[in-house]
Here is the input.
Amino acid sequence: MTERSKKKKEEDVQEASEDMTEALAEANAKAEEYLNMARRLQADFDNFRKRTEKENDEFRRFALCGIAGSLLTIVDDMDRALGTAKEEDELVKGIRGIRQNLMKILEENGLTEIETNCKFDPNIHEALCIMEADTEGDIAEVFQKGYRMNDKVIRYPKVKVTKKKESE
Here is the structure.
């Protein structure tokens, strides 16, 4: 083998090596691009899944609020019926049990009664009338109980509020 042919072979090998290095770098760049694309796609899918779960949860809560509001009228009717009962017979005990079971189910789904043993708060209480008293802004009487479901007021308590007597 001549010196010239050896040099030519070395140049060919070096050229082939450079071509392979370029091809490898190109393939690595493509692989990195595809990997980044897959990561973005996975992140988009995770965001979509989380958003869908949140929307479904909000829809469920909204639907429960509507149903609970309707059931509260039945609870009110039971309370009125129990308030007029003269004796504690089996029928009255049965109605009390049904009311307790209904309230237990509603409470398990996030229903809580709005407190009325406090000062009047126009954000959570509805004043139907005012009466004069020695204090200002107390709740004197509750006409209808109010309820929250998952921190959302579904029915405001209807109350009578005290107003301080004016001096003559």
